[in-house]
């Protein structure tokens, strides 16, 4: 079967760092994507990992370990506008995206 | 970045009517588009993969006769919800792949469907 797990909710403080974990078991792997989704809006692309290691893009970084079926999204210098759902998605064998349930992040002052 | 539009952004209809949703890639050609459905506080569930010039591929449990998909050109795919019922009320999102080195999917802004 195919399974992608993320924590349902997280809370963090403005200016802090937060790490959102994602574990996956899928048939086929064509990369792991992180998307940000604000309520009532479509997801927007944040990052893509296909090889093991850390990818850094400004305040956002994403890590992948294929052997462990594990990824995380790291958000630094949190801002109030970072309050959103963060979706982990795996590119499957047929290039379809399989989404996790999403992690709702609340950034508090 | 690549831009995908959807129309309408929201629609309210009576039970039993049909609703058509358009998805367009504005600045790139998309041979493949995807249709998702998202219920409140849930993640995106893939409904079907739409390929230009061929029949759509539906995910298990999605009724192809109820959710008609047409991918007539490289920039347009349509989803028609036929004989809509209240349980079809949801957020429908399309995406298109291409136009980037990451080959990621670019999502449209979504269509909020409410069936009374």
Walkthrough of the structure:
The complex is a heterodimer of chains A (109) and B (116). Chain A has strands at residues 3-5, 9-13, 18-25, 32-37, 44-49, 53-57, 60-65, 70-75, 84-91, 97-99, 103-108. Chain A is mainly β and 109 residues long. In chain A, the strands form 2 sheets. In chain A, strands 2, 4, 5, 9, 10 and 11 form a 6-stranded mixed sheet that branches. Chain A has a 5-stranded antiparallel sheet with strand order 1-3-8-7-6, with no helix packed on it. In chain A, a hairpin with a 2-residue loop joins β6 and β7 (60-65). Chain A is globular. Chain A starts with a strand and ends with a strand. The model of chain A has no long low-confidence stretch (mean pLDDT 93). Helix content of chain B is 0%, strand content 52%. Chain B has strands spanning 4-7, 10-13, 19-25, 32-38, 45-51, 57-58, 67-73, 76-81, 90-97, 105-107, 111-115. In chain B, the strands form 2 sheets. In chain B, strands 2, 4, 5, 6, 9, 10 and 11 form a 7-stranded mixed sheet that branches. A 4-stranded antiparallel sheet of chain B has the order 1-3-8-7, with no helix packed on it. Chain B is globular and about 40 Å long. The interface between A and B is medium-sized, with 21 and 23 residues.
Distance between the termini of chain B: 37 Å
Structural class of chain A: mainly beta
Q: Please tally the β strands of chain A and state the result.
A: 11
CA-based shape of chain B: globular
- What does the radius of gyration of chain B come to? 13 Å
Portion in helices of chain A: under 10%
- Low-confidence segments of chain A, given as residue ranges, are none
The total count of helices of chain B amounts to 0
Average pLDDT of chain A:
93
Total strands of chain B: the figure is: 11
Low-confidence stretches of chain B: none
Task: Give the CA-CA distance, first to last residue of chain A.
Answer: 41 Å
Order of helices and strands of chain A: EEEEEEEEEEE
